[in-house]
């Protein structure tokens, strides 16, 4: 009998240890991108420039920004995330009256559609279509731009695609910066609108220069708009092409909806209010604050009378079909010594040298959530800023992203792959 009790005790302890085991990075693979003899990039690298990275369908759009400048991007590159091939983007046959050498076209985002031989280049004022060799096809004015001067166009989340359609998030239009309470819906007669759908073949074959929606997707229980979010639009939209569906959050990523386009059905989920997997002391207070780095909600310490100890900003969501999990990527900013101590005890430290200002620390958090009515964090990675990635692909046991790695002389662009060790099934 004593032997049986001992066996059960050992099993209990081993299960408890397994449940408390931290998610860790087992292996890293760093592939430095080869720009060959590209004279512009080699010059820019010597200036310790910063990079902006967007991803679409296995391609990365890399823009290089000059230091201490606002919006000056002298070079744009397209990178294949599988073959690591680098192409300098040189737009061809653009109309002379559309963009000039003194005012060149630099996209904010893009959608790569290899099967259609199309690239959709997105700017706040509209989209430009080219083929995959960067030959100009057409320019179309954004549906967000209003004729009335009282409206200021705002970028309402990411435009995404499914099949041959583009989906434009429909939401708030800000009327007056000084009057923070002035909120307007872009379609005042339809407050249930979620997305406007645009058929790519239809706009290519028409002579119209303004994008018109062929369909408005509605949700009768659409998330209400918060007066606190007038300054910045914080909703996140992301497609799930395998299920012909898309996901979107409310203004502060408190809740998320899964919308199925083939039958117009919706499934609702609530995101966790706790910040960390291993303690319930820290909670999210959904009140927008503006920070140089992110637009965020507050983190409060319940043990110390809801003391504000940091900020957390929503960054990305991705659905993993095979594991039936949702992955959430956020940034966390704090100067609270107690919280920094906790985070440093949990994080996956990769770099040897810490280059950050110790008075303020930034962390990247990667949470795997179970798809239940109330989503639960079942696995969590905490990465300090000097090691975090611009993530473009997430799998149950692998994360791939872009990173500039400083080697003592230049900031070298690289693709980094992490093999991670965790169990994303709830215990």
Strand order in space, largest sheet? 20-21-22-23-24-25
Number of helices: 4
Low-confidence stretches: 2-21, 148-156, 173-186
**In percent, how much strand structure appears in the residues?**
35-45%
Mean pLDDT: 78
Radius of gyration over all CA atoms, rounded: 23 Å
Q: Briefly note the structural class of the backbone.
A: mainly beta
- Overall geometric form: globular
Main sheet record: 6 strands, antiparallel
Report the strand count. 28
- The end-to-end span amounts to 28 Å
Fraction of helical residues: under 10%
Report on the architecture of this protein.
With 427 residues, the protein is mainly beta. Helix content is 10%, strand content 43%. It is built from 4 helices and 28 strands. The chain has helices at residues 2-20, 39-45, 200-205, 337-346, and strands at residues 24-32, 50-56, 59-65, 75-80, 86-88, 109-113, 118-123, 126-130, 136-141, 160-162, 165-169, 172-174, 183-185, 193-199, 215-218, 237-240, 245-249, 255-260, 265-270, 282-290, 295-301, 307-320, 325-334, 361-370, 376-384, 390-395, 398-406, 411-421. Strand 7 and strand 8 (126-130) form a beta hairpin. The chain is globular, with a radius of gyration of 23 Å. The two termini are 28 Å apart. The model is unreliable at 2-21, 148-156 and 173-186 (pLDDT under 50).
């Amino acid at each position: 009998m004593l032997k049986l009790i001992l066996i059960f005790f050992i099993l209990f302890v081993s299960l408890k240890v397994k449940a408390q085991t931290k998610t860790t990075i087992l292996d890293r693979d760093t592939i430095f991108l080869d720009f060959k003899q590209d004279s512009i990039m080699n010059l820019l690298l010597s200036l310790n420039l910063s990079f902006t990275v967007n991803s679409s369908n296995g391609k990365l759009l890399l823009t290089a920004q000059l230091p201490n400048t606002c919006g000056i991007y002298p070079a744009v590159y397209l990178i294949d995330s599988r073959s690591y091939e680098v192409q300098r983007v040189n737009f061809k046959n653009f109309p002379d009256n559309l963009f000039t050498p003194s005012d060149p076209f630099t996209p904010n985002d893009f959608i790569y559609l290899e099967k259609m031989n199309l690239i959709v280049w997105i700017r706040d004022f509209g989209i430009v279509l080219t083929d995959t060799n960067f030959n100009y096809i057409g320019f179309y004015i954004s549906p967000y731009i209003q004729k009335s001067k009282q409206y200021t166009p705002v970028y309402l989340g990411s435009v995404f695609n499914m099949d041959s359609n583009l989906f434009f998030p429909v939401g708030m239009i800000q009327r007056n910066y000084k009057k923070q309470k002035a909120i307007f819906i872009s379609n005042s007669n339809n407050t249930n609108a979620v997305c406007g759908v645009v058929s790519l073949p239809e706009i290519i074959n028409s002579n119209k220069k303004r994008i018109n929606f062929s369909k408005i997707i509605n949700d009768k229980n659409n998330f209400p708009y918060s007066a606190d979010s007038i300054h910045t639009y914080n909703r996140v939209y992301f497609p799930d092409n395998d299920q012909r569906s898309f996901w979107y959050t409310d203004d502060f990523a408190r809740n998320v909806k899964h919308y199925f386009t083939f039958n117009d059905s919706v499934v609702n989920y609530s995101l966790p209010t706790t910040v960390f997997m291993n303690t319930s002391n820290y909670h999210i207070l959904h009140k927008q604050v503006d920070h140089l780095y992110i637009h965020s909600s507050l983190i409060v310490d319940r043990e110390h009378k809801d003391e504000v100890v940091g900020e957390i900003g929503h960054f990305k969501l991705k659905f993993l079909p095979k594991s039936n999990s949702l992955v959430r990527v956020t940034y966390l900013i704090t100067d609270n010594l107690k919280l920094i101590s906790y985070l440093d005890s949990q994080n996956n430290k990769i770099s040897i040298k810490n280059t950050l200002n110790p008075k303020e620390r930034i962390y990247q958090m990667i949470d795997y959530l179970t798809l239940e009515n109330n989503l639960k964090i079942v696995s969590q990675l905490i990465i300090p800023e000097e090691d975090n990635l611009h993530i473009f692909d997430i799998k149950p046991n692998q994360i791939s992203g872009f990173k500039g790695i400083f080697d003592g002389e230049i900031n070298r662009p690289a693709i980094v792959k992490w093999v991670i060790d965790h169990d994303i099934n709830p215990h």
